[in-house]
Design brief:
CATH class of the largest domain: Alpha Beta
Number of strands: 14
Order of helices and strands: EHEEHEHHEHEEHEEEHEEHEEHH
Number of helices: 10
Radius of gyration: 19 Å
Helix content: 25-40%
Distance between the termini: 35 Å
CATH topology of the largest domain: Rossmann fold
Shape: globular
Largest sheet: 7 strands, parallel
Number of domains: 2
Structural class: alpha/beta
Strand content: 15-25%
Strand order of the largest sheet: 3-2-1-4-5-6-11
């Protein structure tokens, strides 16, 4: 297929680009490089620098290319920031996303894979969280992603666009063969921050809460290796191409690791000390967030193969240790 990947120079987008090319697809990357890196882009991919907020830029990449599908990754993604700067998220995530959907209709692209998030669920009513869980985002980032999910549903009914909304849990790790080497700019997620303490870029990590009802008192999250995420995108694309049905799927492992699990595994693999302080819980942080991925396994035959904590930490340390 001819696939357009918006945000394909970013951390997850570049891994998806790599997997698309590994599987023999023809890939074009569209990215404004605000958080991505040009040397993340695979040499076999065509690159257009541009913004999802510019009709002119979108037309340049769409015109005459006859794409079969779009994988839409371009968005802002920091939940905390979204509560301080909601306008940024309304513009980048909602307006940008709708611009790409409209362009798909204009240029007769009938398959759309959307990078969504477990944040659409809000505070877990139960775990593991399945796709039937209520949708009640507790941050504007989650709301912005749910807004695009809802628009895709409408455009599917009205214009025949087939889509998959893939709700990620915690993306982590790097390509096992070291093909993607750039670290995220200004990381806000646990594993990159732990790595920055290991390489002495930071002195200490704050652990928010040690009194949760978990095995060691710290929060538990479901970490999914970015290569498994990438494989899931292409499996979902193949499904909607062949079956002609829309999909809403969790992409997680069903296994949770605590903050101290991550810190201790990083200590072991890096042979570095990881200094940390226990501080108060962050408001609204649940103790356990773990996915049910049964639907993905049963629907697209997706089984994570790279997402054990050992491999996630090892592949990340390989990059941070350079």
């Amino acid at each position: 297929m001819k696939i357009l990947i918006t945000g394909g120079a970013g951390y997850i987008g570049s891994h998806i680009t790599l997997e698309c090319i590994r599987q023999g697809h023809d890939v074009t990357v569209f990215d404004n490089l605000s958080s991505g890196f040009i040397d993340n882009i695979h040499s076999e991919a065509v690159f257009y620098k541009g913004s999802t907020l510019s009709d002119e830029d979108i037309s340049k990449v769409m015109e005459g290319n006859n794409f079969d599908a779009v994988i839409h990754m371009a968005a802002s993604k920091a939940a905390g920031e979204s509560m301080i700067s909601p306008s940024k998220y309304s513009i980048n995530n909602i307006m940008g996303g709708i611009n790409i959907i409209n362009a798909c209709i204009k240029y007769n692209i009938d398959k759309f894979i959307f990078s969504s998030t477990a944040s659409v669920y809000g505070k877990p009513m139960y775990t593991p969280i399945d796709e039937n869980h209520s949708l009640n985002p507790v941050n504007y980032y989650g709301y912005s992603k749910l807004s695009i999910e809802n628009n895709l549903d409408w455009f599917s009914k009205l214009k025949g666009l087939k889509y998959a909304s893939l709700r990620y849990f915690n993306a982590a790790g790097f390509d096992n063969n070291g093909k993607i080497v750039n670290k995220e700019k200004n990381p806000l997620n646990l594993i990159p921050i732990v790595m920055e303490v290991a390489i002495k870029k930071r002195k200490v990590i704050d652990v928010y809460g040690n009194d949760y009802n978990t095995k060691d008192g710290t929060g538990i999250r479901d970490y999914i290796h970015v290569s498994d995420l990438s494989i899931g995108h292409l499996a979902a694309l193949e499904y909607i191409d062949k079956v002609k049905n829309n999909l809403i799927l969790n992409l997680g492992t069903g296994t949770g690791y605590s903050v101290l699990d991550v810190i201790n595994k990083t200590k072991l693999i890096s042979n570095k000390n990881i200094a940390f302080n226990f501080v108060d819980r962050r408001p609204g942080d649940p103790g356990i967030v773990v996915a049910s991925s049964e639907k993905a396994k049963n629907t697209i035959n997706w089984n994570p193969q790279f997402s054990d904590l050992e491999n996630i930490i090892q592949t990340t340390w390989n990059i941070y240790n350079k």
